[in-house]
Please model this.
Amino acid sequence: MMDRGALIGGVIFALLLAMPVLLPIVGAEYLTGLLIKAMLLAIAAISLDLIIGHGGMVSLGHAAFIGVGAYATAIGLESGIEEILVLLAITLAVTGGLALVTGTLALRTSGVYFLMITLAFGQMIYFTLTSLAAYGGDDGLTLWSLATFFGSDIVQEGEGLYFFVFAALFLTWLGVWRISQSRFGRVLRAARDNPQRAEVMGYPIARYQLIAYVIAACIAGVSGLLLVQYAEFVSPSIAAWQRSGDLIVAVVLGGLGSRNGAILGAFFIVIMEEFLSSIFHEWRLIYGPLLVVLVLYAKGGLNDLLHPKSREAS
Model:
């Protein structure tokens, strides 16, 4: 029998799948771009939840991998590489290799020290991106060509891009959940809850944590690749620590370590920002207290409002 978390996830994806049909009927095709933006944030948030919610590794530099993925894609496009699958391979190799190096060093620490060292690495990557004068430097780079899919422009705009991002979100959601429920995920949570006991039981927890860190970075890199396709522009600002803060807010707001929390948190942030900013210039005066109220009264996040006592991965 399907559990409630899977049912809620199924409803979310069914609604997203139906949106390209429903939005034109109600004359709201312009919301397609907003949904793509929310899905891209959700992909990155799910990847961060793997290391925070399941691994207990709070990173304040995760957005740097989005930036690295975006710039790897942009530089590839500027070099004449347009096949999206080739760009995907390049993105995974670059972000995975960088995560392997930075993760090996960062995981020598824990707690607040891990947070600070990931922040330091993130800022190093951010300033490296700003120094790429050939690719726009601080001002960013407007792309005049986008990736193709086997020579077709189907993934460049409109419904084709929407469904490509949708597929990436679904595979990320499903893949991270399968990881969390596997033996690997159980060891990762054991290392989160009691690392000393996990070590005594013979598990090389540093290795498990490093693998999770690299997987999360690669997924974030894919989010960066798709962001380039959506925005047709790349800027170092997407790698700034404030962007990492937004991801943490999405994960915590949605519900740490829950099946659908990262998606709910990401969509809530994007939709509320768009709605409030459209009716009130100083919308942050409402948005900030709203987040505080939600954190105080929905301690398990938005996921618990839909699925009480749902800490599936705990």
Q: What stands out?
A: The longest helix spans residues 205-231. Residues 106 and 133 are 29 Å apart (CA to CA). The two ends are 20 Å apart (CA to CA).
